[in-house]
Specification:
Blueprint (H helix, E strand, L loop, with lengths): L1 H18 L2 H16 L3 H14 L4 H13 L4 H14 L4 H13 L3 H14 L4 H13 L3 H14 L4 H13 L3 H16 L3 H13 L3 H14 L4 H13 L3 H14 L4 H13 L3 H14 L4 H13 L3 H14 L4 H13 L3 H14 L4 H13 L3 H15 L6 H20 L1
Length: 424
């Protein structure tokens, strides 16, 4: 037994002497680097394997093999394993932390990505790319202020660093500072981001938030020109076209968007709304049906389907879709408001009163319940109650810009009713 143990130890010593050969590892490593420059990644990969076998402590070989695993072979986990080994062997090797962070971003592991870039920054505090990519990771985990700090640090190192200027604009947008976003994105465009569609996508959104719709439309159009598959820019351009009254152009944008995302219920819903505004009710109905097929229980689609059905005079289906909206969301004020109107218009005032008064009890601050209640009182000639309800509507809606049209209508009706009732 003693002789057997001696033999095993001797064999292990021979194997160890054969496998650990730092000089050979250096030769293999440099040969790999030379071959890598010629684009022969397979041969370089083989030589790096040999270098690691010859010297398992050579951190540069692990780092270089990780790069090949990542970019050429697409083996992200093997790349991560090699980089973890690299920094174990050489904890102050910043490029390994940087590449590790980049791979974590690629695999959507943003928390580990941010931690990796933080370690790179601790070693190399003056490298703009470390801050830039940590900012990208922070954006993804919704740490918008931290992301902005990172991008601004990168910009302080290189004021002409267009990618950081672009993402600083994005970050300003995320924290609700559209004017600062516009300024940063103007600089990004000037310093080299003029061929990047997101430059115009983000700036267009910034202009949208400051109500400069013409400028927003121009930027969204530039984004779409640079990247016809930018679905966000297409969607936003459609919305801006709608605000500017360009409904046909909006419909075209939604149609182009649907061609790229045919399973997106929101796109059919949005196009259906524009068809309704164009009084193309059957096309609107078709789109709302598709939206509901893709997203059962889509309460807004039920409601807008009801509007389109009402527009073509189909009262039965109007009520059906209103009821579906209310069953889906019993507190859906807009659907309850319309149901109150429908009950009145179909000669069921008592049901209208019951529904509206119950809705007011649940939400006394929703002005349009009082508007519809006033009209219902007027329908049965209870004049004083009609005026009281309309005055409550005016009081509650006075500061609501979206109800400005209804507010004017309410004032007109009160004046009309007062004259009418006085004459009676």
């Amino acid at each position: 037994m003693y002789r057997t143990i001696i033999l095993i130890l001797s064999l292990f010593a021979v194997i160890s002497c054969r496998s650990v050969n730092p000089e050979k590892a250096v030769v293999d490593y440099h040969s790999a680097m030379d071959i890598l420059k010629k684009g022969d990644l397979d041969s370089a990969f083989m030589l790096l394997n040999q270098a690691i076998e010859a010297d398992p402590e050579m951190h540069k070989a692990y780092y270089s093999r990780a790069a090949i695993f990542n970019t050429y072979k697409g083996q992200k986990q093997n790349a991560i394993n090699d980089l973890v080994e690299t920094v174990r062997l050489k904890p102050d090797f910043a490029p390994a932390y940087h590449l590790l962070g980049r791979i974590y971003i690629d695999t959507a592991d943003y928390i580990n990505a941010a931690e990796s870039f933080t370690k790179a920054i601790a070693i190399e505090p003056d490298i703009k790319e470390h801050y830039y990519f940590r900012g990208k990771a922070n954006l993804e985990i919704k740490k918008f202020n931290e992301a902005l700090d990172d991008f601004e640090k990168a910009i302080s190192i290189d004021p002409h660093f267009a990618p950081a200027l672009l993402e600083a604009g994005h970050s300003y947008l995320k924290i609700g500072k559209p004017f600062d976003a516009i300024k940063a994105l103007d600089s990004a465009e000037f310093y080299g981001a003029s061929k990047i569609d997101r430059t115009y996508e983000y700036r267009g959104l910034s202009y949208y938030f400051v109500n400069n719709y013409e400028a927003a439309l121009k930027d969204f159009s530039n984004a779409c020109k640079l990247n016809p598959n930018n679905t966000t820019a297409l969607f936003n351009r459609a919305n801006v076209n709608s605000l500017l009254g360009n409904l046909e152009e909006a419909i075209e944008d939604f149609t182009a968007n649907i061609a790229l995302e045919s399973d997106n219920a929101l796109l059919y819903f949005s196009r259906g709304n524009r068809y309704h505004l164009k009084k193309k009710y059957y096309l609107a109905i078709s789109d709302f049906e598709k939206a509901l097929e893709l997203k059962p229980g889509y309460e807004e689609a039920y409601l807008n389907m009801a509007y389109s059905q009402f527009a073509i005079g189909n009262i039965t289906l109007t009520e059906k879709y209103l009821d579906s909206a209310i069953i889906t969301n019993p507190g859906y004020n807009e659907a309850l408001e319309m149901k109150g109107m429908l009950l009145r218009e179909t000669n069921r005032p008592n049901e209208s009163f019951k529904l509206l008064e119950k809705s007011i009890e649940r939400d006394p601050d929703y002005p349009l319940f009082y508007f519809e209640l006033a009209l219902t009182w007027d329908s049965i000639l209870l004049h004083d109650k009609a005026i009281d309800s309309m005055e409550t509507f005016l009081e509650k809606s006075a500061k609501m810009a979206r109800l400005r049209g209804k507010y004017k209508e309410g004032k007109r009706l009160i004046e009309l009713w007062k004259k009418k009732y006085k004459a009676e």
